[in-house]
Design brief:
The chain is an alpha+beta fold. The termini are close together. A hairpin with a 4-residue loop joins strand 6 and strand 7. The longest helix is centred in the middle third of the chain and has 12 residues. The strands form two sheets. It has a four-stranded antiparallel β-sheet, with helices on one face. Strands 4-6-7 form a three-stranded mixed β-sheet. The protein is elongated, with a radius of gyration of 16 Å. The mean pLDDT is 84.
């Protein structure tokens, strides 16, 4: 089993946190996450120039017990496409279905755990 932790950082509106965490818990390889960090920021958007529109964004860093699979990343990307999440960052190991890569220490082939 891998000793490295995979971290998934999600960005979302604070009101959507409970719903987003529920949907993430339904995704294989995300079901047993631990929240490592949470922060809320007030950002400014200039999409309605010359006006600046403030909006809140929350980011949660989740520690996952196993590497994310490509299928899990696609399911999380669907949450971004629907607008529930505004972005994600994956740090650590990713299971490519026969090979595990680690984006923190460069590409490396690690045997999958039996």
């Amino acid at each position: 089993m891998s000793q490295l932790t995979t971290l998934l950082t999600i960005f979302l509106h604070p009101d959507d946190e409970e719903h987003a965490l529920y949907l993430l818990s339904e995704i294989e390889s995300c079901e047993r996450f631990t929240i490592k960090d949470a922060a809320e920021d007030l950002l400014a958007s200039s999409i309605a120039k010359p006006f600046i529109v403030p909006y809140k964004v929350k980011h949660l860093t989740l520690a996952l017990p196993s590497p994310l699979t490509t299928e899990a990343i696609q399911e999380i990307a669907r949450l971004v496409a629907t607008g529930l999440l505004s972005g994600i960052i994956v740090q650590g190991e990713i299971n490519l279905g026969g090979q595990i890569i680690n984006n923190l220490h460069g590409l490396s082939s690690l045997p999958l755990p039996e």
